[in-house]
Design a protein that fits this description.
With about 425 residues, this protein is α/β, with parallel strands linked by helices. The strands form four sheets. Strands 1, 2, 3, 4, 5, 16, 17 and 18 form an eight-stranded mixed sheet that branches. Strands 9-10-13-14-15 form a five-stranded parallel sheet. The chain has a three-stranded parallel sheet with strand order 6-7-8. The protein binds (4S)-2,6-dioxohexahydropyrimidine-4-carboxylic acid.
Amino acid sequence: MKYLLKGAYHYDKAGFTKRNILIEGKKVFYINNVSDDINEDALGEYLPIDLTNKYILPGLCDVHVHFRQPGFSYKETIYSGSRAAAAGGFTTVCAMPNLNPVPDCLDNLKEEIEIIERDSIIKTIPYGSITKGQMGRELSDMEHLAPYVIGFSDDGRDVADGELMEKAMEKAKKLGKIIAAHCEDEVMSAGGVAHEGAFARANGLKGISSLSEYSRVLRDIELAEKTGCSYHVCHVSTKESVKAIKKAKARGVDITCETAPHYLILSDEALTNEAKYKMKPPIRSESDRLALLEGLAEGVIDMIATDHAPHSASEKAGGFAESAFGVVGLEVAFSACYTHLVKTGIIPLKKLVRLMSVNPVKRFSLPSGYADFSVFDLDDTFIVNPDNFISLGASTPFEGEKLFGKCLLTIREGKIVYRNI
Ligand code: DOR
């Protein structure tokens, strides 16, 4: 198809400019300012879409999602997850390997890739696992996986054995791949369900200490420095991790990190004993949240990723003590961040675009140069209602909230993959 996207504010490095955009095939064929002449008669073959006063962003990219297939399709499928992503404005996502079978060798990975090729409407790129079966004992078949994966991660699990992590980093370095680490000392956090702080104490819940995260971050920084591996910290949640990553960056370690919307927007003071607030790492204290915001401002935190982690309704029934770790994020992430971070003046819109698209594309060398766009009406609001989610998961800490920023259109390689206009 050929499209003429008319009159929206289009993001580029300098900011936002009102433009007309022509899309032809997979590529952007032409962009002009609306003040320039555009001869619509000559453009008869292009389907016009009036986007006056809307915002056209580069397609959003999420380097941390759980699409649960193969193995756990009762929680989410690549079909439902990719459509949920498109509805949230995402055109590229990276899928974590806590699956069954775990993509720890080519045969297992092929199973996942076949489903992606059949069912995904956006670009879904898998991670390979760091260790066999994510068991933390032997390395996966990293060499053979490397050409097909975005990087390596044991997300959801700790790699407790430092020597093994060092070997993984050496290999990843040789293969030119990134290691994306779930930093959690699982011995220390065992049995914990909420941040070790005011909320856990008040509700008689076993805590997950900040140390259980940042002790791993500190170890891995040493290993990344020693091996020269490209290293990325998943879902940073503590002020100590931010501080450690800042120092490591200052001395030239090849390190980046992500955090998720809920860690930037909520702290444990605001929680109630409901499963929609339960995830790993947990929502931390207000001082942690403020340190994350400072980390965003200073560029210590490179990107926002959702950690979209759907579970079934029964797995998320009950409160903190009984329910599974994980909340969904794809369909509300941009709007939640826009409402709480941009509209409040904490960060400018163009910074949010960098955090949710430009920076992950650069760091993970994600495919670029295509007509990948997401279009938002930033003045329109909606109430977060999980009954309307495309994702099979429904648990979100933003349930019931009124958010600004409605996704109208998502275009992946020149094809409309979501339309709500
Ligand atoms: O809350 C979480 N859920 N954190 C993780 O690290 C894993 C994820 C999942 O897979 O459910």
